Amino acid sequence: MGAKYFGAAVRRREDPRFLRGEARFVDDVTLPGLLHAAFLRSPHAHARLAHIRTEAARTMPGVVAVFTHADLARWMKPLPLFGAPPPGLAAAVKFELRQAPQYALAKERVRYVGEIVAMVVATDRARAEDALAAIEVEYTPLPASVDMLIAGEPGAPLVHPEWGTNVAVGFRHAIGDADRALASAEVVIEETFRIQRYVGMPLEGRGVVAVWDRRDGTLTTWNSTQVSHFVQQGLVSTLELPPHRIRVIAPDLGGGFGTKASGYAEDALIPIAARVLGRPVKWVEDRREHMMSAAHARHQTHTIRLGARRDGTILGLVDRIWLDLGAYNAWGVVLPYNTVAHLIGPHRIRDMQVDVKAVVTNKTPNAPYRGAGRPETVFAMDRAVDCLARTLRLDPADVRRRNYIRPDELPFDFGMPYRDGNPMVYDSGDFPAALESALAAAEYDRVRKERGVWRGIGISGYVEGTAIGPFEGARVTLDAAGRVQVATGAVCSGQGHETSFAQVAADALGVPLDWVTVTGGDTAGVPFGIGTFASRSGVTAGNSIADAAGQVRAKVLAAAGALLEAAPEDLEIEDGRVFVRGAPSSAVDFARIVQAAIPTFAKPGVVTPDFDATAYHHVPTVTFASAVHVAVVDVDRETGAVKLIRYVVAHDCGKVINPIIVDGQVHGGVAQGVGGALFEDMAYDAASDLPPIETIHLEFPSPRNPLGMKGLGEGGAISPPAAIANAIDDALAPLGVRVTQTPALPWRVRALIAAASASPPAARRTDS
Fold this sequence. Notes:
The chain is an alpha+beta fold.
């Protein structure tokens, strides 16, 4: 494959329409006779539904229909469930796994504030919302479980009484002999770290529009989703229709971050209403709805122990992990096992033991959000490494130098499965090089000596399984003018697919970049697909596009060979023109080749006019991307405020398609990670809390796919909480402060400083 565009810093082709306000989001979809839906959501964390009275609401002006579970019983199928352990994983880890069905409209009981009780459809949104106030619901409040540590114990109020417990996922897993390793260690440190609950906050909320066509019995729905084919799959079950009669279109998305990769009640309810009423229906989420009913994320507690020699060599690791899943476990083992699979990271640890308990509580359900277990587990591990360094009075960088896996040790087999059930084997990379690159760029040694101010520097490194398979669909087609249409199941929510995928296709076909048009997330474009999440689209869709484009290229060469009376292997393609090698004057462009293949009244085409190919590149297991983040902070001793002064990322995502897009992905991820590290509320203020982010690209191609790529989308969000907390500890090292909880809000840091200042020097060691 040529490299005319692959690797080039091409400006994003989609940006002009966004900047001109010409993008098309779900809320821009308007149809004749469009109705609007609004939802009555539970104000209770846990309650029985005794009675629902809708008579008054049904008679209000503009109201077309009011629906409860009983009204739509025929259509009430359980929402999609994910995360069953694949065979390879189930054979190695004995999971205690429970998943309860959730219905689009609550049946008999509500289990979190925001769960949908009723739907009103009216001629406009305001009238629909007015009618919600007229619905009378008699709730019988029930005891609620809200603390994950208490919820997992006997006697706690049960979210799903039929389980007899609140434990949705429980398991133990070990590699090596961690007990023996800790028993032989010269020093053992133990600490409990808490990662708060927060949520992806895309600029555009969720939204759905649906229209039912009675003429041919088809449904079309526009959905602000990252997973069009998954939404289609859910509707096949709900509406009892074959897939070809359900078209799901993901238009322009104003962000997703994993929040839009879950299965939601509204995904089903709006199409159901459209079919029942025979009119198009729209719903667009407001921010209050998003806060209470879009998937929440994070929220873990780790009690972690590290055993080491006095030189800092880590011998063993034991971690007791709790996760709060909210009211329903829709994602199975995904979050708990993702957490475990990324705990060791770049460290050379052969002895590990984990005990995991993921519980349901009466809160909005959790789902993967940019990083999906990785930021939490990296926070626990990297904070523990820094605690070890301080206990041993060693430089945190030196402890990492001693423990990071060397490139000559790769591929590195941990002797445990990854989440996809395949062996967890790091494929390529140079973790020590990333460490040294980041330290040098951040001027680590100089900053460590700046003790005249309360300044600190912190390090965090991760290795991330990216691009989970098993495939993504892509179709490449030439039109009559020889221009290229690329369709894929991958959905763009800001990642620049229209540019990067065009770069892949243009190089594979040998055409100018502006000849390529890319569309994603339309189930009519490619019959089978998965979607965009888990840092997967570049690898999965990119390689499928390259495969399909390669097949179309072969067809073009065959047709050109017939036209030029030359063997295809003697032809070359450049800028959309085919010529005999060594004879550029013989060149014919793609348009002429396509036209020559189309039969006329005078003669048949030179070949069958089939310039179309679909590919599903198989991705059996993940590629491993990696990075080291270094944060420099100043801490105000009087207020506890933390100011981020400098931030450096040295990362490896394999072969880079477009460095501009890669920088944007890293910077956006870091911004979200900084939010998780330092802030709790969703306040708007001047953007003074994020310095310029320095990015260092390290390319270690993956041997696991032809393009040599690894995933990137989530990486930037993984390490900021750990790096920043380590920097705060470093800044306040003279006081012996230890940050064990995120976010590091000013009042929390100030309390640590006050407690440390009040303690005698010998006793100083203060936890958040």
